[in-house]
Amino acid sequence: MSDSDDDVPTLSAHTLAALQEFYNETKVVTDHSAAPTDQFAVGAVEEDWRMSQFWYSDETATQLAEEAVREAGEGGRIACLSAPSVYQKLKQGVVDGSDRVSAVVLEYDRRFASYREDFVFYDYNEPLSLPDSVSPHSFDIVLADPPYLSEECLSKVTQTIKYLSKGKVLLCTGAIMENLAKDLLDVKMCSFLPKHNRNLSNEFRCFVNYPSRLLSC
Q: How many CB atoms lie within 10 A of CB 110?
């Protein structure tokens, strides 16, 4: 092989343009994947559809967090059961009164273990398999979003809700679960319509077992 500059291969203008376009697209993807940097931002942990994860819109997460703070009361405790985006909104410090309550997130997804002592591993298939640090009836309100629209899932999650709650329950699930939810938890459907960052094929609603502003929103 010759060391002469005359033998160095050159690229055509078309090839150079294609390479530049690829570089620009790669840079955009890389930059996008780096955001958001706030560990408590809704979407900081990407949805994993294999675990039936669909995050609430920022507005919905805010309204549900406000409701939880209002109903928990001063010094109250909030359990976010399979509802990490509400927990994240509570921890952002943007909801009035969120600094006067405490919250935990019960999740199967161990990526949320980054929230340290606020994270409780939870598998709905073992609804009462909880650590000793989680005492029965120790939460002023339980906000639950069962991962699957099935009688089995809601029935098992109900066991957990009843173990955790002092009384107040805010359930977020598909409208098709209304009758079963009423039978299991004595909840009523709210007028408030929760929304997600991605559109769901099933109508989604909120249910409560106490007088709530969400009932007539």
A: 9
